[in-house]
Fold each of these.
Amino acid sequence: MIKLSNVEKSYPSGAGNAWVLRRINADIREGEFATIMGPSGAGKSTLMGIIGMLDGGWRGEYFLDEHAVHRLDNRRRVELHKQYVGFVFQQYHLIDNLTVAENLDLPLAYRDVRRAERQALVADILDRFQMACKKDLYPNQLSGGQQQLVAVARAVIGKPKLILADEPTGSLHSSQGKMIMDALKTMNEHGTTIVQVTHNEAWAAYGHRIIQLADGWIVDAQGKASAAC
Amino acid sequence: MGGDKTDVWQGTLALMVLKTLETIGPMHGYGIARRIEQISGDRLAVNYGTLYPALMKLEQEGFIQSEWGVSDNNRKAKFYKLTRAGRKQVEREAREWENTTAILARFLSPEEQP
Amino acid sequence: MRAPRAWLARLGEIFDKPRRDRELAAELESHLQMHIDDHVRAGMSAEEARRQALIRLGGMEQTKEACRERRGLPWLESLSQDARFGLRMLRKSPGFTAVAVLTLALGIGANTAIFSVVSKVLIDPMPYPQANRIVMLRRVFPQGLSLSYPTVSIPKFMVWREQTQVFQSTAIFDSGPLALNVTGGNRPEQVPGIRASAGYFKVFGVPIVLGRAYTAEEDKPGGPHVAVISYGLWHERYGGDPRIIGKTIEVGGSADEVIGVAKFVARFPTDIWLPLQANPNSSDQAHDYLAVARLGPGVTLAQARIAMKLAAEQFRRKYSGPFMMPGESATAQPFRDSVTGNVRPALLILLGAVGFVLLLACANVANLLLARATVRKREIAIRSALGAGRKRVIRQLLTESVMLSVAGGVLGLILGFAGIRMLLAQYPNNGGGGFDIPLIGSHGSEVTLDWRILLFAIGVCLITAILFGLLPAIQASQTPLSQSLNEGGSRGGTHRSRARSVLVVSEVAFAVILLAGAALLIRTLSALRALRPGFDAHNVLMMRMTFSGRQYDKTGGLAAAIQEAERRVGAVPGVQAVAMGCCVPLEGGSDLPFSIEGRAPTMGPYNGDDQWRFISPEFFDVLHAPLLSGRPFTDADVLGSEPVVIINEAMAKTYWPKGDAIGQRMLIGHGLGPEFEEPPRTIVGIVGNMREKFSGMTSSEIDPVMYVPAEQLGDPFMQWVREMLSATWFVRTETAPFAFSMPIQNALREATGGLPVADVRSMDQVVAGSTAWSGFIGMLLSSFAAIAICLAAIGIYGLMAYAVEQRKQEIGIRMALGAQPRDVRGMILKEGGALTLAGIFVGVAAALGLTRFMATLLYGVKPWDPMAFGGVVILLGAVAVFAAYVPARRAMRVDPMVALRHE
């Protein structure tokens, strides 16, 4: 589903370039649950941004199914993003002055879904996540775990083929974290491709395989740079 | 440190300094402090750390003047002496203090006044 | 307390820091040594002695620090540190600083400039001793003061002035400056002058710098020819010659002895005062004079009014007959009111307008400071965490606010100075339409910067700046430190942004109010300019002349001069036609009562009282005024031939609605006095309406006018006329008229035996001048409105730009959830639009309430004119959208990755 070859990103810094990502080659199949791990500053978030088509200014090739993302202009990428991707962030990133229901409604509204259909979908997802009683609350009236659950619900409401979760449990207690991971796992079992970033070995174990990043390189389990293909 | 000695109250230190200078004439900071302690029969402990700022304040207000001189033990020291304004200030403050203590004494005396 | 002395001493110590430091160290060291000595003597080891001594001293450095605190002025040092830091902060955000300072400066400057003028006119004492004791004596009609002219006749004044129990002194003088020919010497010129009774100098307390004023004795009929001249004329024409007293000058053809020089700001420009020498037994009914009085000691205005009412009744009993109108009475009015009545509403409106500008400026600065407050919340939290006391933080912010206000104030002062000059440069000083701003001297020389308002405006700005500058400090001290430190800035401040929204809404509302006022005046102006004056002003030159001298005592002299002028001026190449008339169209003139033969009197003994003009036969030709029926005047209409009159269309319609005016006869001015007696005149023609004046710009009505041939006035009538009204020559030229100005002036001088001309203008200028006052007010209001709209735009821009900055992350999230850039742009625009709409709504409601007060300034538009309001709404809406568009564009470019890179 995702095929990255020689993807690189750098920022001009001083005389030369500061590399964020170097020669990334990766293949993630449909239905896979992949985990990206690595120390802070390894380029994990940047890689997520590139996969999620939020980030521009990289080089290399990126095929999302048959779409050659590297050849698409920004508008087409946004279209593709809407079609494929749901995001879950570490900080939940719910919008403070919108209710739970309104937060869930947002991605649908941006996908030009009709109002009646949106209401049905929101009601459905609230039900599925057992949050119907909380739909009129504001995010700051919820616990961290509940907020993240809303964020996950928001990520899946548009029925994305791909969920990108950037440290979804980073701010949660382990019991709440488990709740989120279980939700992701269920989604994956229903066929959604998931890429997550985590520092937690236990959560990483939920996935099928681990991609290790260090200093912008993909490294093998021993921490050596894997040979370019 | 002071043990059970009483620390000199802030407001009264200035008056004690002035009175000391009036009584013994020009004197350096250390001498003033020792003198106050002696007069109190060592019941008071002068906090030397507050003595010098107090001297400085009195000098700024023009109640005392300072000049360098030599102490009894042949040490170079800064001597303070009362100015004319300082003399008046001693009188005034002493009077006020007497008033205050007199009033306080009445409050504290065991018999009710008619 | 010895505080001042101590401060001074400490101030001195600041500049002597290193020496003081050394001395203190030495003193403490000597203290230590003596203490150690004592300890050693008591048997301690040297080391232990030193340790004990140090403990008692409480640590060397701490003691030094305590002394340093005491020494110098730590607060002054930290103040200068605050100031340095503040300056750096202001420099670091030059945009914020520039906008805030400029905003304040505009508010302060505009207020200072306008208020300086207004206070001179409406508030400051008039430049006369005990000016509040001076009253105007005037007729009054049941309709109230505003509808009646303040003029009086000599017989009425003679009765009124008998009220000696209430008046200390009284005076009567010409109701407007006469154009006096000053001849003799090599430079004849026209100067403004008035005839005034001797009491004039007493009532106004005129300061005589040289010689003396004329006496009541000299003011009697047949008295000597004496004159008092102005300080200005004395210097300009006579070089300040101290021997001027006793010299004779030629004024209006008669030789007058100069007896005094007066330095005085008169009601209108005056260079020569002549004794009126009015006959106490006169029965002259012409109301061509103004009367004033100084109240006696202890007399109230109410008492004076009662006395005047009685005097009016006394007059009615004394003169039975047509001397008083029905319902007419007399009253006393404070002199300032009579002087400022015309301009008062306009000045008050301007004052209100600048007040709004000040409010706007304050709102804007408050807005800017609040925006900054959020940015600085973290900085303040960090400072507090590092141990800055609440006082210290507040002082830091206070210093910055004060620096801003002071900078704004200084710039405002400069703007205020420049503003006054600009104001007066724009001020229409031609007196067109009678709208002079009184009491400001010639070209506003009496106007000075008003310090009170400058201080007031700076004070208001300072309070605003302090209030809103301190808010962050106060709030910061209320929120727990950890919270504000941890906040990334995405939360919190919602109620502050609500406050900012309220500020922006009110800014927009203020702008709407100012814009609405300006728009109404602009509409008025265009309505006025669209008015057809009824004549062809293009390529016509006008100049005034006063016919003084013996040869013009008889009408024949004037007739000869007119014919000679027609011949000589007509011979100037490029001149098409020349004519004379008493008055300049659009600038008013005099009126006379008349009765129509065969009709019962309807208005006292008369049928009406309307504008009256004398003209030469070519007058209508020169001005291209169409004759609608009947015949024009010819050279045959002279004294002795059948007396004739031409009326304008308005008069024909008013008095002969059936269209049968031609051939009717009317008796003009009968009963006013012996010089007005003349046989009835036959109406021979009807001429198209020419606008005589814009009637204070409130009425679209055209005054009825009667025109009589100048050459057909009786000799006594002629003499009255030439004293009271200067004549005007009108010359139609083939091309731009000023090219012919000199040859025409020369030809006129030759034709009239050397009389000077003055006030040379083109009729195009006259037309332009007639709208100058509303143009002036309109220009000022428009500039205030322009400032307002800029400030409102800055406010909207600032708020939205700030919102985008604050919500970068939220925008990033939205984009990560699939929002298109245009969705984001739309969101920001919608928020800006909602605020603007709210502001417009409030503003329009307020403006509808306020524009009513402008009614007297408006012409041809209603105070709720939908066009003006619609235009304002559209303009402001467009500006607001533009102001919000820039930040909205910035929002579009927010990188969605900010949502990912949270840490």
Note: Chain B touches chain C at residues 1, 28-31, 34, 47-50, 52-53, 56-57, 59-63, 71, 73, 75-78, 85 (CB under 8 Å).
Amino acid sequence: MLGWLSNAALALGAFFFIAGTLGLLRFPDVYSRLHAVTKADTLGLGLVVLGLCLRAPSWRAVVMMLLVWLLVMASSTTACQLLARYQRERDQAEGGDQDARH
Amino acid sequence: MPRPLADRFLSRQILFWLLLYCALWWLLAGGGGWYLGAPCIVAAALLSCWLGTPAWRLRPAAAPRFLWFFLRALVAGGWDVARRAIQPRMPLAPAWVRYPLNIRQPRSRLLFASLVGLLPGTLAAAIEDDCLSMHVLDQHQPWQQNTAQLERQLLRLLGEEPT
């Protein structure tokens, strides 16, 4: 039972990773791509961690994996914000008088 | 200035950081290597105090609701963006929007801006004069409601009163 649940979580996690990568390749601009990478990958990693937690040999491993997830989530959301800010400032500088809200 | 410095180091803060780093070391090293860990723990705790990072004051009573809300938003956000990426016609209607912030503390604002990036279809880019500049993936989504809900939940968790 646990094994099946774990398999399902791992497969779902892989699905979200693939979907995030698809978004990264297909979406038209930097910002939309950032959406895909941050959200889909965070959820994908979360599901992979969940799947592995169900198979974990000890509580220590579970807490460690959750910690890894938390750190990756923190770094990816922060990096995503910084990239968006950088790109926006560049767009605004290039756009000149043209409003950069597009 | 020996006096304020001493005040800064000998506080409940340092106890908090020492405990936290001890737990972290135990977790990562599996209860071994304390001869290496102890100096690192002390150094990290002193550094944390020196940088003056106050510990988050969370309201434990509000944590389960926040966690539930956050996990639901995370799943909704991931699913939303995955769906758009996979559909052949790729339904996107991106736009830049501004959200007036109710959160006052700069630190809480940064946390909020990070969390906004995990909600369905929103992405924070900058905080400009009490507004959060966000990129939305689809402007027809109820992004305003979602963001406001997250803000309320976060204010409740941090014990800050909305102004």
Note: The CA atoms of residues 5 and 50 of chain B lie 9 Å apart.
